[in-house]
Amino acid sequence: MADPNHFIICSHGFGTAKDDRGLFPDAIALVSGAEIIMFDYGIVDSVHNTVTVAPLSEQEKKLDEVITQTRNINPDAVIDLVCHSMGCVTAALLKPVGIRKTLFLAPPYHLDGKRILDRFGRNPKTIMNRNGTSILARADGTSTIMPKEFWDEAAGQDCIPLYNSFANLTEVEIVNAKQDNVLGDQGAVILSPKIHIVNIDGNHGFTDDARAPLRKVAAEFLTP
Fold first, then answer.
1. pTM of structure
2. In 95-145, which residue ranges form alpha helices assigned H by DSSP?
3. How many Å apart are CA 37 and CA 50, to the nearest integer?
4. pLDDT tens digits for range 135-156
5. Nearest partner of 86 among 135, 20, 5, 168, judged by Cα
6. What letters, b where the CB count within 10 A reaches 16 and e where it falls short, cover 56-77?
7. 3-state helix, strand, coil in the chain (%, to 5)
């Protein structure tokens, strides 16, 4: 049965558009009755296949605006968050109050600038400029335009304390991808006992065979 007051707000990852390459609508497909709200943090240019990444401070502001607008229009709204990758960091930095549940998909535990350099630097079309704007060529043919401000704000963020602190305000479940092809092996981490952790087979985007178990996990966690 539809619940007109249940909203799921999605916080997408680094260099993607609002639906996170189709991850969000597919992952939440079994959560019946909820209205899904997706939005872009950066500038998506579909003509030139580029996404310009907004600094984390601007992303926080945008997420706060979307949550506030949703609550103003629907004062009795039950609001959940579904966040992927860097979108988890944005939500944890903002720490919005009044969120019922938050689902983190493949969150980074360490923001490693060297890993970014190594990953995108292997593509000869990438233009890396630590002191200015970088253009990161991606495997799907798109390019991510990353301003210096994003790099400066992201560098050195300690994600684990952010997640642990956020878990004091909302019920948090983390879904880790066992074969994460983007974050790789992030090592052992110490998370708050308030955070529920699920590990499923799949890559960073939970594509192909990973989608079915992900849909099940999301439905069990987010269905009222």
1. 0.94
2. 113-121
3. 22
4. 999 888 899 999 999 988 988 7
5. 20
6. bebbbebbeebbeeeeeeeeeb
7. 30, 20, 45
